[in-house]
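Blinded run. Sample ID left blank on purpose so nobody reads anything into the name before looking at the predicted structure. Input follows.
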Amino acid sequence: MVATLRDRELLTLLIAHRAELVSYARAIVGDTALAEDVVQDAYFRLERAQQVKLDDKLDEPVGYIFRIVRNLAIDGRRRIGRENTFIQGDANGTADMVAAEGPDPEEKAIARGQVRLLEKALSQLPEKSRIALEMHRFGGCKYAEIAKRLDVSVGTAHGLVTDAIEHCKQILAKGG
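Blinded prediction complete.
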């Protein structure tokens, strides 16, 4: 199959942003190899999304691929957590007899509640603010990188991150 112009544009986009995408995914999943897989899967999803739109171009392909990477990375992190829980279990039941080294069930419930609140707060943010916050906090990107990616000034990028952090703090403080 001959690559179309759109396919080449998407591939160029991925190559141009690959290092940032891998860094962003690695911050979420904690593993470089898994982050590379996430970015590759994200490219295939972006390619499929572009095909669905037929002759139209995706409105914001860079933001869209970052969102895909985020979602895939979070899904991967959850899957790894489930797999580790399953693997750590013991057929003889001896693992249940050893005192747990992790947090107790109450602490886990509180943490899960805070994660849900944070996810709610992130979902309420405008897209540019959410992407800026995620790039800064999860991806370790500097304001200049965020500004370039979102096509805004460095001051605006700083403001987007600051406002997003403040919004999240308020939601967490209110408890919902």
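Unblinding after everyone has recorded impressions. The CA atoms of residues 20 and 69 lie 11 Å apart.
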